[in-house]
Amino acid sequence: MKKIWIVTLFVLFFASIVFSEDVNDPNQISPPYSSMIDFSLWGKQNLDVNNVHNLLTIYHSAKINILPGAFIEKIETMYARKDCLITVDGGDVNNINLYLYSAQAAIKNGYVNNIFVQNYSLVNIYGGDVNNIDIVHGSTTKIRGGEISGTIFVKDKGNLKIYGHDFEVIGENINNINGKVIGTGVIIGKWEDNTNFLITIEENEETANILLLPKILSDINNDDIVNMIDFAILAKNLSSNSFNINADLDSSGNIDIEDLKILASEWLL
Ligand SMILES: [Ca+2]
Ligand SMILES: [Ca+2]
To answer: Is the pLDDT of residue 5 over 80?
Structure first.
């Protein structure tokens, strides 16, 4: 009889470990998170957040999705590994701090006041409203949409890549030399959907790299090259009912042979 109890306890213990890995709903977070205003995510946890927090710390390969209703003072990554990702798809975040090589953030909607991008980390901005961005220590920020209402500082081998068209630089101290921006001032242009943008560069240190780039249609995963990975995403959408809007290269509303032709023409450009 005693053996059965021991076995049962072991089963319950391991089951609790297995199920505690799969955290998706903030209302279902098991202790200690449920009793804390601030929390840390570890391992491969993936959490949606739509409420109020002071400090959220994201470790290793954890992912966090900030949704409408969220109001957060600070999110920071620590010891980031591959797949560590902060996604802002709504809500209001005062500060995002990215540390270490594999830390990534994607801004799609909502408002972010300050982003500090450092130690070779990566930020992709697709939409939303971002106020100030600091890009340092070899980090990269890529902007393809949204509004940058404040200013951008780029220093210490930081990289800023702006994808759009009809670029112009405005100011006495700023120049566009074959797509590379020298000096500081205002950059205007249009995003891929033809909406206008205005970006103010406050600091552009000598070691910094600010580039104005045309969007490569076939670069579906936005890593600046068209290769097997993009082909695989397109092929998956061709052969199934799934629809990845980035794979509809000619914006025709469906994914077919015409999109494949565009990808073939831009292959390994
Ligand atoms: Ca690509
Ligand atoms: Ca298409």
So the answer is: no
Does residue 39 belong to any structural domain of this protein?
Answer: yes
* Separation of CA 131 and ligand 2 centre (Å): 34
User: In sequence order, which residues have a C-beta less than 8 Å from that of residue 264 and are 6 or more positions away?
Assistant: none
* Torsion sign across C-alpha atoms 226, 218, 126, 177: positive
> Could you read off the pLDDT of 151-182 as tens digits, one per residue?
999 999 999 999 999 999 999 999 999 999 99
Distance 246 CA to ligand 2 centre (A): 10
Q: Are residues 206 and 250 in the same domain?
A: no
Average pLDDT over residues 184-192: 96
Ligand of minimum distance to the alpha carbon of 230: 1
Domain hosting residue 258, numbered range: 228-266
> What is the per-residue pLDDT for 124?
95
What letter would DSSP give residue 87?
Answer: E
Whether residue 206 sits in one domain with residue 245: no
Q: How far away, in angstroms, is 267 Cα from ligand 1 center? A: 10
Give the Å distance between the CA of 248 and the centre of ligand 1: 14
**Nearest ligand to the C-alpha of residue 218?**
1
**30 vs 47: CA distance, rounded Å:** 12
Q: For residue 17, what pLDDT is reported?
A: 43
- Tell me how many domains the chain contains: 2
Same domain, 248 and 153: no
Q: Domain boundary at 213, 237, 255, which?
A: 213
Answer yes or no: do 48 and 157 share one domain. Answer: yes
Cα 226 to averaged position of ligand 1 atoms, centre (Å): 4
Helix then strand count (H, E) for the chain reads 3, 19
